[in-house]
Structure formats: C-alpha cells, structure tokens
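Worked example (supplementary).
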Amino acid sequence: MNPLEAHEVRKTFRQGQRVVVALDGVSLTVAQGEFLAVMGASGSGKSTLLHLLAGLTAPSSGRIVVDGQDLSAMKDRQLTLFRRRRIGLVFQAFNLIPTLSAAENIALPLMLENHNGAQAQAKVEALLGTLGLEHRRTHRPDVMSGGEQQRVAIGRALAADPALILADEPTGNLDSQSSRSVCALLRDLSGRDGKTIVMVTHEPSVAAYAQRVAVMRDGRIIDSFPTSQAHDSQSLSLRYHQSIQQSSSPAS
Amino acid sequence: MAIGKLAFASFRTLKVRVALTVAAVALSVSLVVAVTSGYHSMEVAVFRYLAQYLGSTDVQVVRTGDVHGAMDEAIVEQLKADPMVARVVGRFETTTRLLDARGEPTQGRAFLLGVQLPEDADVAALGMAEGKFGRWFAGDEGNVAVVDQEAAKRMDARMGGTITLPGINRKLTLTVVGIVHKPGILAEHIQTIYVPLRTLQQYAQLPGKVNRIDVVLKSGVDPQAFARVWEPRLQQRDPKIKLRFTADRKHEMDRNLRAVRLLSYLGGTISMLAATFIVFSTLSMGVAERSRVLAMLRAVGATKRQIAGTVVLEAIALAGVGAAIGAPLGWLWVKMLAWYFPDYFPTGAQLSVGGVAFGATASIAAAVIASLLPAWNATRVSPLEGLTPLGRTTSWRGMITSALAAVPLVLVDPILMFAPQVPRGIALWAHYGVGLPCLMLGFFLLSPMFVYVTERALAGPVAWLMRVRAPLLRQQLSGSAWRAAGTASALMVGLSVLVVLQTQGNTVLNGWRLPDKFPDMFVAATTTMLGTGLDEAQIRQLQSLPDIKRDARGRAQVLPIAIDIAGLVAGTLDADGTGIVPDKTMFLGVDPDLALEMMELEFRTPDGKPAPPAERERLARQAVEMLKLGRHIIVTDEFRQLKGLKIGDQYPLKTPRHGEVQYTVAGVVWSPGIDVMVQMYDLKQMFEERSAGSVFGSLEDARRDFGVERINLFAINLDYRGATKKEVEERIRKTLGLWGLVAGDVREIKNKIVAGFRRLLNLISTVALAAIAVASLGVTNTIMASIRTRRWQLGILRSVGVTRSQLLRTILAEALLLGLVGCVLGVAAGLEMAVNANGLTTKVFGYGPPIDVPWPVVLAGVGIIMLVALVASLWPATSAARQEPLALLQSGRAAA
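After joint prediction of all chains, the assembly is encoded as:
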C-alpha cells in the first residue's frame, strides 16, 4: 500500500462568472519513504494539489487516498482527526501560533490529542534536539529567525509521527543557508527515518534534495523524473525547463 | 477630502463591524430619545391636567400644621366681597380608604374632594365624556359621586352603581354619576373621588367648614398685594391660616420634576456610555488592523494630523449615522408605547426635542472622545511597520502607564464622598458631575490590566470548562488588550449600574430591621374625619375589648402613641441649604413602662454601638426612668448620627405649646419601625411636613408641650382565642363603631413596602439591562474582529487537526473570558460605586446603614453578562468554525 495516491483529481473555482480549472485530472502515487518535489510555475496548481492532498479542501472530482484512507469519503471531523494523526504540514510562512512557545508549537498536535504525559514531553524534547532548537524551547516565534521558525514548523509536522509530510514552499521565506539546512533536514527525514514527503517548490536547488520531481503545468502533471538523472541543481533546472517546453510544443 | 475617502473606504471593507457599531449607537440614542420623550409625554399630560385642575387660581387659602385644617366657610363670603377678587371657591379635601365591592378595604388611599358645582369651574371642566362617562352632579348636596377611572377600577364601581366610604360612626353610600379620566400615571398614584361639598361636610361632621379656598384675582391684580391685605387679616382670625401662591406651587412642582427629568436623561446616558466604549473598541480594532495601510500612508507622505483626522472622522460618521437612525427609532418606541398604553399618554406621544438634541450631540461628542486614543495610536504607526510580519501586541509599558493614570481617577469619588473637607452641599453634584465620570474613566484605563490578569487567572478554568487546551487561550485577549478593554468596559457599565442599584437598595432594606418583640397590631385613626382621634372614653372602650391581651397585672396591652411634629432648631441640624435634610422630627409620645413591655427596642450604647443583652437591658431601664421624669427623649440611631448626639446631651425641640424646649437624650435605639406605621397610615400627611426619623418621649410630654389630647395610633397585643387578625380588626371596628379605623400587622406592611420597593428597584435596574444589551453588540464586534485578525491562525489550527467543534469552543472560550473581564470590572466598579454612594448618604443625611451586597443578584448579573457574551459570539464563532481550513488560511493571508 502506497502512503499517497491521487486518482484523476480535478479542482475548479468560480471567479465571478468564470470557472477556473486549478487541477485538471491529476493522478499521482508516492511510495513509502519517497521524497517527491512538485515543481511548477506560479499558477500551475502545485499548491492547490498540496492543499487537496492535505485534506484542507475537497476536490471537485477524483479520489485522494492517504495511508489507505480515501479523504473524499471522510466527514469533516474524521478528516480533521486523520490530518492531525497521519499528515504533517509545513507552510512557506511557517504559520506558527504566535502566542505559543517553540516547544508548545511542536507539541500542538499532541496537545490536541490530550497527550500531556512524560512520553509526549520526551517526544517534544527529542524533536527539539533533532532540530537543534533546545535553546529555543521557551521562545515565542517573534524572537526566532526564519530558519528556526521553519524548523519548529517541521517539528510540529513530525510530532504526531505522520504517514505523510506535505511541505508548501518550505524555503520560500528563508535565506540560502537556512534554506539548505531545512532541505537537508527533509532529505534526512526521508532517507534516514523513512518519512514520505511531498514538497512543493519552484526552486530547482530545493527540488534537488528530493528523490523524484513531478512537473506541473496548467493544473496537470506533465512530467516526472528521478533527481538522480540530474547531477546538480543546474542540470535539474535544465531538465525541468525541457519538460515545460515539451509540453508547450505543438506536437505535445 | 482624502481623509474622508480613507475613512469611508475602511467602512466598505468592514461592513458588518460598521453596522454593529452603528446599531449600538443607534440603540443607545433611541433609548435616550424614548426615555426622555416618554417622560416628556407623561409630563405634558400631567401638566395639562394639573393646569386644568389648578385652573386660573392665583392664591390658595389653607390651614396648616393641624389634623383638621378646617376653616370657617364664612371666609369665602368675606373674600368674595373684596374688589380685587374675581372668583372664590371653597373645597373640603381629605383622604379615605377605598372599599371594594364586598366592602373590603383595598390597598392605598384616595383623595376625597367636597366641591361646589357649578361654581367650582376648574373641577367642572375636567374631562368627562358626557353620556359615555356620565355627568357632573349639580349643586353641593346629595349622595352622589364622580370618581376617576382608577378609583372606579379599584372599587369595582360602575356608572349608576354605588360605592361605600368608611366613616366615623357609619358608612357613606354614594351613587356614581360620572367617571373622569385622568392621565394614567397620575390616576395610578392618586385616586380621586368628588362628592358634593355639603355631603362631605356632614359626613365629616364638620358642617360649614372648608380646608381649601381657591381665589381667582381680577386681571392686573398682583397676588402679593392681595396677600399683604389678606394674610394679616386671616391670621388674626386663625394664626394657622396661610396663603399659597399658585405660581410658587407650579414652580415647586417644576423643581420637584426637574430631578425626575434629569434621571430620564441619565437613564439613557448609561446605555450611551456602553456605546461609547464600543465605538472606542471598533476604532481601536480598525487602527490595529490597518497598521500596514496606515504605515503605507505615512510612507507616501500622509501627515500625522491627516491620519488622526481619518480616525476622528470615522468616529463622527459612526455616531452621526447611529444618531440619525436612533432618533427616529426612539420616537417609534414612544409611539408604540403610546399606542399600547394610551392611558399613560392621554395627549399622545410628545417628542422631547431636548432628548433628541442631547442624544445626538452627546453621542457624537462621546464618539469623538472615544476616538482620541485610537487616533493617537494611529499617528504612532511607523512607516516601516507595514513590513513587519507579525502585528503589534499591547505593550506592557502602555498597560502599566494606563493603570497608573487610572489609580488617581478611581480615588476621586471616594475622596469627594469621605473627606470631611468636602462640604455636604456640593457632595451630590460632585459625585455625579466629577466622581462618577472619573471612576468610569479610571476603570476603563484599568481595563487592559484587568484583561491581562483575568486572562492569566481564569484562562485555565475556562479552557477546562470548554474542554479546549489552555495554551490556545493564552494572549487571545491580552494580545489586543485595548480592543478587549473597550468591549469589557461596555459590559462593565451595565453590570456596575446593576450592582450599585441593587446593593444600595438592599442596604436600605436590610438596614431596616424590626425587633423580635413587637406589637401584634397597630390601629390607626387615619382620616381627618375621625376628628381628633380617640378620646379617653373610646380608648377605655378599646382597652376593654375581649380580644386585647392583658399582662400579669391585668393591664390591657393597648399602647396609645401620641404623634406630633417637633421642629428642629436651626443650627443644631447643621443643614446648609441642600434642601434635602428635613427640619422636623416626629415626636412619638408613649407610656414608657408599657412601651418597653410591649416592644423590645434594641438599645445601643451612648455612642450608638450595639450593646450586649445585659447592658441593653440596663440601658432600657435607665431610659424608661428618665422618660418618666419628663422632657427626655429616646432617639433613633439615624437621628443620633445626624445630630452628633450621645446619651445625656440636651437637644432643643420646637413645641407648639412652649416654643423651644430642651429635651435630654435618654437612650439610643435601632430604628424600630413605628415611623413606618405612621407613614403607611398617612398620619404624617396631616402635618404636611417632611420629618427626619422619629424621637420617643412620654405621653405626658406630648400632652404638655405638644398639646396632644386625642390619640391617632395604638399598638395592641391580641389574645386571639382562635380568631384571625382580620376578624379581630373587624370586631374592633364594629364595637367602637369607627369605620375609618384601619389596623395592620407591621411585619405584613413591611413586607408589602419591601416588595413594592423591590419592584421599583427592578424596574430601575432595566436601565442596566439596556446597557448590557447595547454592550452585547460590542461583544459580537470584538469576537468578529478577533476572528478576522486571526483567521490564518484559525486556519493553521484547523490544518494541524483542530476540529470544528474544538475551534468553536476555543472562540466561545475567548468570549467567555471577555465576559469574565467585563464581570470583574463591573463588579469592582459597582462595589466601589456602592461604597461611595453609602458615603454620600452618610454625608448628606448623616447616616448610612452598613453595606449589604445582594450576592445572588450580583451573581445573576454575572450570569447575564456571561450569557450575553456567549450568545453574542455564537454567530461569528459558528461562521468561522464552518469554514474549511483552506478558506481560513487564504482569507487570513489576504487580510494580513
């Protein structure tokens, strides 16, 4: 069983009188422990795909199966609990709760599960250690750097030990050093800890940390290739642009 | 122009918030207009009626300070002969109990007017629709009566039917020939029965007597000139005759009504204060949410003045639109009331132009004041602030500065009320004009600190109650403390008013205690028709009744209580022109031994402190012995405090027989309640004086110094023998043949008074509920703003696994916290106001009973606030909870 499967997913929005097709029959499978990067230009539908995979919104048609569970068949409460337990989310803008400390932000999914005991605390402490945030335990987001905030966000995504981690432009608001550090962390989580990760990005240098790249254009996945085919971020960028060009040529 | 565009542009994006704020202002202005116009309508009706009743009379001739007050009718003829006089009419006015159709006495008393028709043109002109409501009787004889609509209702009287009046030796049966319609508000308080003059004179056994003569002077005659001629002449005939000028009476009536008129304005103003805090809260939210826009405006060259102008203009626009909607809405309320209760609005709904002007100007002025702090905050936004990712939270420095500024403000009122240097004459005005506004402003400035402390202390319990995680509630309010402070202050207004009104009321009621041992029954000869009360023979007859209890020595337990009014010598009263403290006291003459045997008065130490039982007994014996010596008095503790007396002090009383006489204080007692009986039976009415408490002297002193020969009030202990009090009362009436006698149980009467007072208190307390209703709009506003500013945060919570129900409960918990802050502020402000009001009472009246907080009522008020907070936040909370996580995240990002 694959931790993530999407079948012919379609999502439309109404914009005034106009119907906008954000996703147009996307199908996708991500294997256990795989680190997938979804690339695409702005408006290609990559963020919408991620939101649908996270169950933050419902598809207009098609099915999304996470960890063997069909998200579209779930009621809101079931879906919320499922998201809390089985899906970890990392946002571009970190999206931490400003009134909670680093440790509390990480512990949030555990708190919501009423896990307050020593086990939960040990888990948070371990995550703080893994993420190099021990010294920031009691600090609130407004006194932390962007890189630290994103690491807290990753810690929160990992707290419930989810089947799937979804990251939406996790380095979009970071400097290059912090960016590299976060990417390395995600790669380790996949390679070392066997976490399944889907990351949306438009930067080839970030996508290079993944195992596979899915390229999106106009709401469809137009190509998919392993990053092993590219030696570095430059050749990955070239490969990405080739995919885009091929899809826009009249023959395609 | 640019300022206007900016101000109104923000309204377009915050339609619901603007609508709620305008609704709060409109509701408060409508309450001001409704209350003032409602009062104005009733006042117009009452004045129109009274103008008709007083007619063109210029001068009234009356006899004061006497039970009977009757004058010889010959005076009328003498006056008629004067060339200055155009018309003279004599009337006989008294009071009577009303009997219902079964002959049972009903509650209250009615005016009984003996009039001569058609000469008494003013009475004849009173509204009575011929045919439907009968006609006036002609002449001055015959057993006929015209009654007002309320008297008719209470006596179950119909046109052509009969009514019965209780009399001295017989009952008087009259045929109802007409029913006049008075303004409902008047009729409810004063019922009137009009009978022919001669009929009433015969019934009262005072033939040829009148007690009011109305004089209409010829055009151009100066009433003062008339008085200069006639006052000496009449006083030579009878020194108790006095002239009263109608202009003075109208002026006095107007002065008395001025306080009520002022209260009608104050009633609505309380709601307006709540609305002001909501305007403040709305503007604060607007400034906080638009900090990026404001920063950008500053960056592109907007001056601080332009930025501040935007906020002030917003305030004026909100209040202006609110007032424009509120004024007609208030008028609509009054119209509806007039339509629903036509009896109270006989002249229809009358718009109070003053009320409309006050409502409109005060709401706009209040909004401008409310905008000052947000405007100042707006000018402090730095052009760089628009670039910061996280919004500003309330700074500690600001919170502490505000709290420090608040401390002296909340101390102003207690200083004014308790500092001996503040003279009594200005205390009342200082309290309302300076103390209370400072107190409200002080608590408002303290409110951010209250927000922080309450959140720290109560977020845990509230989270537990709502089954949400406590950390999620942290800083939800204190993060934007001023926003929460504005709404909490709006909630505070209503609750504090409720607490102070109910505490003051409770304090007064509970300060009034009756002794354990008290007479079973009081019997009073209440009407002037009973002549001078019971004479010796009648008293002996009363004592010999089988229902009367006897003591071990066989003495009947009937305690005659002689009542008169003693004047207080100026200077000793220390009245300084406030016009509030009466300059008379009630003198109650009793047999000292019998009084002590029948009543367990709570004697106090010489300086008014409660005494242990043995000491109390000694003080009682000592007082009785001193009273027997003559020219000694037992005073109530209120009186002792008012005059600063102690046992053994001499105190001068003005007596009718011997002028100023020195009386020695023999004892101090806790208010025993006899004065209540006197009030209830309207015995004081015969003196037409206001009196301060009462003093006890001996029956001998009452006879010697006050000339009391007959007794109007008796305390009786009964030997029931299986009969009810009512049966005993009836037997006394029949045996003595005194139908005008009324009897009652003081506890029963006290309960009735207490129940009536509580009803009045609850009615007045609706002012507080109106303010809470206005504040509820602020709660909705605040919760909506809180959701709006945290939509992305709510989106995160939903995306990391917070369920809809958990989100709903988290928002409701925030509303509960907001309500709790309002409760803490309201109870604290209310209690301080109650303490200050008690200080004011002590300062002005010389006595303030110990404060007694009605905690169940306070708790009910807290419950109402919490319920309002919960209900007012339901809609925004459910709306937020129903949104899907992505929508929250996206709309939050757009708003950021």
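Two points are worth noting when inspecting this output. Helices of chain A lie at 46-53, 76-86, 102-112, 118-130, 146-159, 176-191, 204-207, 233-248. Chain A touches chain B at residues 51, 54, 56-58, 76-77, 80-81, 83-85, 89, 91, 93, 95-100, 104, 108-109, 111-112, 141-142, 156, 160 (CB under 8 Å).
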